[in-house]
Write a structure and sequence with these properties.
The complex is a heterodimer of chains A (251) and B (274).
Chain A: E1 16-20, H1 27-34, E2 46-47, E3 50-51, H2 56-62, E4 63-66, H3 78-88, H4 93-106, H5 122-134, E5 140-144, H6 152-169, E6 172-177, H7 180-186, E7 189-194, E8 197-202, H8 204-211, H9 217-226, H10 228-231, H11 238-244
Parallel strand pairs in A: 1-6, 1-7, 4-5, 5-6
Antiparallel strand pairs in A: 2-3, 7-8
Chain B: H1 21-42, H2 45-68, H3 78-95, H4 98-107, H5 110-115, H6 121-149, H7 158-186, H8 189-205, H9 218-225, H10 228-240, H11 247-273
Helix pairs in contact in B: 1-6, 2-3, 2-6, 3-6, 3-7, 3-10, 4-7, 4-8, 6-7, 6-11, 7-8, 7-10, 7-11, 10-11
Classes of the chains: A alpha/beta (251), B mainly alpha (274).
Amino acid sequence: MKAVDDVSFEVAPGEIFGLLGPNGAGKTTTIRVLVTLLSPDAGSARIFDLDVSREVMAVRRQIGYVPQQLSADGGLTGWENLMLYARLYDLPRVDRRERIDAALRLMGLADAQDRLASTYSGGMIRRLELAQALVNRPRLLVLDEPTIGLDPVARGDVWDRVEALRAEAGTTVVLTTHYMEEADQLCDRVGLMHEGRLGAIGSPDELKERLGPDATLEDVFRHHAGAGARLNEQGSLRDVRSVRRTARRLG
Amino acid sequence: MSGQSAAPPAAWVSASPAHRWWWVLGSRIVTFCWVEVAKIRHDRTELYTRAIQPVLWLLIFGETFSRLRVIPTGGRPYLDFMAPGVIAQSALFVSIFYGIQIIWERDAGILTKLMATPTPAAALIAGKAFGASVRSLVQALVVLVLSLLLGVGLSRNPLDYLGAVLVIVLGAGFFSMLSLTIAGIVLSRERVMGIGQAITMPLFFASNALYPVHLMPGWLQVLSAVNPLSYEVDALRALLIGTPGNVGVDLLVLTVACLAGIAVSSALLPRLAK
């Protein structure tokens, strides 16, 4: 069985790219290939000109990854959670403290750094996980459903932090989401995923304009996901088809 | 990545360095030991509750059997003979349930995130398993202090204790890996718990922890000979109370067992991360 088929996209440096689709669309599977946890049966993925299935360790050193589930350790303090990753990314001893402090400050957790992560709120945990992924100063940040389960305030906060990170460090971000609003507000470009396939790629505005005036991203998604047979007749997707058979490239 | 020139500032391009495998292995073991120490410092309850069993073995079982004098222990009091066995046993009891924690870390996203760091599977397993042995070392310290209070004739050579630390780390590491292997096969906390409970006592009784091997029936001697716990006890006994033993052979067997454990459980790691 194929979880993901025909998924090709490129992401430019400093871009926030979103894979948008419902649960089960294959977003997480795609992400797992990018972060080297899953080897693709066919095709390839490249990150900063490194092949994810051949140069595994080199790729991992360039990436910060926040999985969908809760991945901070509640038995450690916020600071210790970061120290763990500073060590696992082999940061030189002299740089560790400074990098940890910077990441905590960027995520607004400096005041809570000595508390056990088990006492954090949902939004704080998410920011802690982002800080963990930043301690390595990755060139690419991979976020799997970064705001799932967060209330609107915490969600907006996470968006602001990701924006701030991109502005400050030029970090490239690839994220998955099933929130139309998140794709609309946070992402420079989105790829629509449905049943393991990538439908259309473009900036949220572009995709909406292509469909017609007053279209929402949700309309765009329904348009692509619901009308598979008619997609081939439409010129607007010719470019998407042409890149489908090329290797999946990122970076 | 071509075309655009939004290159990140120099400070952020400092990709962390690549190291040799043995450096990574050592670094990960140190890291996960550090994690265990940090966790123990935050929550000590487990240390206290886990200390109860070995204390009971020494105080009740040990004291009583010392009076019986039916077990030939080479002229040493039975309590002396038994103390190293209790250290190995308490390390076994801590380690054999380590798989439960891995399943828990798997259900949370912790394991996935660890696996996406520049840590080869073998280094992750070795780090985790030997890191877990920190708790066994604390247990051993409890048993040693109690043994001292009970008048067990312990070695006075610091090198013997260094050797004992190595033996305990290898023994605890192996049984943690056995537990990780079980976890990688059954993939559920309840089953790891059940299987762990089913095999701890057989492992314990089919070893030389409580009685010398030559007293056992033939079939049990065979089991004892393939049981890494027996080698752990033999080494601890030789080092800590100075009975004749084969520390070199014991260390070799434990090292080989650990290498096999690393190989098997790191092969099962992708299954756990699914």
